[in-house]
Amino acid sequence: MTVHTKAATYVIEPPVIPTIPVANSDDLFPVRRVYCVGRNYAAHAVEMGHDPDKEPPFFFQKNPDNLNISGEFPYPPASNDVHYEIEMVVALKGGGRDIPLDRALDCVFGYGVGLDMTRRDLQGKAKDMGRPWEVGKAFEASAPCSALVPASAIGNPSSGAIWLDVNGERRQTGDLNQMIWKVPEMISYLSGLFTLKPGDVILSGTPAGVGAVKRGDVLKGHVDGIGDLEVRVV
Questions:
Q1: Class of the CATH-defined domain 19-233
Q2: In angstroms, how far is CA 60 from the centroid of its own chain?
Q3: 46: part of which helix (H) or strand (E)?
Q4: Distance CA 29, CA 31 (A)
Q5: Residues 6+ positions from 26 with CB-CB distance below 8 Å
Q6: For the Fumarylacetoacetase-like C-terminal domain, which residue ranges apply (predicted)?
Q7: 132-175: pLDDT as tens digits
Q8: Beta strand pairing status for 34-38 and 201-203?
Q9: I want to staple 62 with a disulfide (CB 3.0 to 4.6 A). Which of 17, 66, 94, 231 is the partner?
């Protein structure tokens, strides 16, 4: 074992730890990883050309520094077809491997409202070529997010409206009870694939109605019992 007798030094400046604010508090939630659940609402799976009855849950990742609390979404380069996807955000205070269903909610710190912004044209090309999705999903500022509301204050929402308006027109609407894989199930299943730890964030899937944005659009999202998110495309 090597014993260090002085403070560590770095050859470059260490990156800033990505954080999400906590509602009604000066506290910040430090983010370790961001997992996203794919096709977790049946109607969205159908609109994307898949049969939800035949698929187990699957996951992809965004980068922690893709989280965006600025209220603005900069339209990204290399794409002409960027889509919104409204989602409930689940932030974890605990983790482990092979977490039982009856312990999964013990891992939850709180909830937020988020958007999984997607370069759909680049994602489509990646799918066609059998390549990973990061180019379509894990780009800068691609995960706008509200402040987190602690589960200690609101409980663990399992039903309630989730919706998104674009320029005042309702585009997505659903209910949390329509999720194919509920929050305890997604945590338990995911912990069989990865070791979950405090600071992990899960975007829990989107209802039907996804579509393209353009510069100047105003997106207003809502999840009952959790709150609201407003983002302008710039």
A1: alpha beta
A2: 10
A3: helix 42-47
A4: 6
A5: none
A6: 34-234
A7: 999 999 999 999 999 999 999 999 999 999 999 999 999 999 99
A8: parallel
A9: 66
